[in-house]
Amino acid sequence: MFLNHKFLSLALYAVLFFGITSCNKDDDSTIPTIASIAVTNSDFSTLEAAAVQGGVAVILSNPNAGDPSGDYTVFAPNNAAFARLGLNTGDDLAVLNDAFLTSTLLYHVSNGNLEGESIVAGSTSASALGPDRRFIQRDGDTYINGSKILATDVKAENGTVHVIDKVLLATGADIVQSALALKDAKVFVVPELSFLVEALIYADLVGALVAAPGSPSFTVFAPTDAAFKQLGVDLGVALEVPADIRKLPKETIAAVLLNHVVADGGKFTSEMSDNTVMPLGGTALTLGAFTNGVLSVKGKTNAIVANMVIPDVQTTNGIVHVIDRVLLP
After folding, report:
1. Residue 115 belongs to what domain range?
2. For the chain, which residues score pLDDT lower than 70?
3. How many domains are contained in the chain?
4. Domain boundary among 134, 168, 202
């Protein structure tokens, strides 16, 4: 499902990087803008289309009027990064709400010129969207949130580009509001978490996951609508629409939902390892090996492990990993 273009990508970046940096920095006519880099490099064709649809292409074609340096720093997802979300061409971007796409792109951008030597594990970087991104070191690689940094310091006329292997995602809202946004098609045109939202409401757990001053941060494994429908098949109960969740006992749904929430400060995939973690429900979850930027997760009585469909979604009170199975205690 996930494409790995690492070696091809790095070769392209090497050609781009050395071709650009060999130019005279004082001769701006020979150095492309950040937007032009996406246009001229075929491995950024989906990013180019996203920038046009999201209305940021013109912004990244010009100096940054909001910073004295006139520069931007952009963490640029390659085509393979978009493919992980099922976005293989510009036309596939139509499944995204335009406002969400714009916010997503801004989350990849920051003011000023953050060079590779200044990217230090344990530090953070503010984004144009607002939420900070954090830098993490793992197995000799550097990550921004859960996205591996594949190449650094691609110089542009109006800043610097660093290449990453996963699209950075942030909602700017708490866990519940983020799930509601998914349910209400404010992220994807086709909602993904309608059953989860219905289950939270039915089990009276909305308040526990709403952000408040000083509230704890969580890691949440969020089952898709398809995952809940599969649960119905496994249980012999028809779960065809979200309201069907109410066919099951409220205490059962509450116990299952609490099995998906870990009060650990909120962890990106790059910060997780193959061990057990204890959710609020009190029955340990087993994490698989960190492979290609994701981990599997299994509840105690699950026969099949759950895979991450959309990992590393940053909210204001935790990190959400959308998964393809309901985790059973």
Report:
1. 6-168
2. 1-29, 212-214
3. 2
4. 168
